Amino acid sequence: MPPTRICVFCGSSSGTSPIHLAAARSLAQTMHSQSIHLVYGGGTTGMMGELARTLVGLSGKDSVQGIIPSSMLHLERPETDSKDRKLPRNWSRRIGLQGDPAAREKKDGEAQNLEDEYGRVTIVRDLQARKKEMMELVKEGGPGSGFVGLSGGFGTIDEVMEVVSWKIMGVHSCGIVLYNVDGFWDGIMAWIEKSVEQGFIKGKGRNMLVQRADVEGVIDALRGKGGEENTKKVANETMIERTTGD
Description:
Blueprint: E1 5-9, H1 18-33, E2 37-40, H2 46-59, E3 64-69, H3 73-76, H4 101-118, E4 120-124, H5 127-139, E5 146-149, H6 154-168, E6 175-179, H7 186-197, E7 210-212, H8 215-222, H9 229-244
Parallel strand pairs: 1-2, 1-5, 2-3, 3-4, 5-6, 6-7
């Protein structure tokens, strides 16, 4: 049986509060304790780097698979050459390495060091290819595989909403959970409830995305243990308020 795989979407920045990096470490520690593998954006900075580095340190480099577009290497994996964005020959995919043998040997060593610290990495052509490959890895994972949104910016919310859309269309059936660190995702959850209330999200759509404030709850939700509980609770409270007029 393949390992359980969780794809975590999160920022390449660390945020202004240390609580976000602490949450990334906590998630990695829990994944290690339950032999869960990580699929992520392949970055070495910010939340992404902290998450991958922590899990590799506990479970080894084979427990982490990064997927990164070649055009984003200089942003999310700055240890690579930011001028020509060329990769050493022993990375998962070559993107045109040139130069003398000594230079290649040096870059091979640098790549191996990165792999030992942040796990395996695959280079893809663009963001859409990254999302597709992430989804396929999760779909092929064992029971409890799914997607988690940690703290992040525009890229993070884009990735979360894409997998929600794909689930609505039947492309996958995996759980999607927001790890709601210090209320980070409260605004999104409020938007979902407002959309339900005003008729823009209907039926099963209201339960496609749930939130949990602790890492144990995140893992349990992906395994189907109370995965819809929070959304139904909020929805019921909203219905009661409309009925009573409070």
